[in-house]
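Good morning N.,

You mentioned wanting to compare the apo and holo forms, so I went ahead and generated the holo version with glutathione. This is what I fed in:
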Amino acid sequence: MTITITAFEKSPDGGKGLARDTRVRWALEEVGQPYAVRLVSFRAMKEPAHLALHPFGQIPTYEEGDLALFETGSIVLHLAERHAGLLPRDANARARAITWMFAAVNTVEPPILDLSAARVMERDKPWYEDRLPLVMDRVRARLDQLSARMGDADWLDGAFSAGDLMMVSVLLRLRASGILDEYPNLAAYVARGEARPAYQRAFEAQLAVNTAPPKG
Ligand SMILES: N[C@@H](CCC(=O)N[C@@H](CS)C(=O)NCC(=O)O)C(=O)O
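and this is what came out, ligand included:
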């Protein structure tokens, strides 16, 4: 059955891989599933046809037969549960890997998104310079904890899993801030994720969309 995901027609990051279709592409590549991509404009994302797939008018979405999903955590979990390669067989190890997926999107990603939003949307506010260090410290608080837990391990809990795929995807957004470099073990962890052939294929595929010459 053909899998179709949606992605930005033109990503605001110009193809740095920060748009969330990249993590879904990465999961699809890890489990060896071919997929098609439907590109959507910002306007189309807010129209009824797309809202029927994604109630919040965002990307990515995932369609497979009569199944339509949104939320990257859910999409990656769906793929990981149906195909080998992203979740351990052992029930407890599997539950722990899923726990890390939730930790990535629910505990680590929020302060990182707050930092991105502050940099993009609050720069012209009179309180920007005062607030920014507070926002950065909230990111550091989470990274301190994550870094302490990881130590010199390659992955979060044994072999690479969907938990790592989500966590690396979340941490990648920090690269431009320089904060990641304050944590050599986390920077190396992210680099290990990016070095995976499946990530490379996913990155190249989204880059090709964003560097293609304009149509017409
Ligand atoms: N929690 C959602 C977030 C989805 C999301 O924020 N998507 C962004 C692209 S990375 C988007 O569509 N932004 C455009 C908008 O919200 O209008 C997920 O993980 O799928």
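The pocket of glutathione is lined by residues 19-20, 45, 57-59, 71-72 (CB under 6 Å).

Happy to go through it together on a call whenever suits you.

Best,
F.
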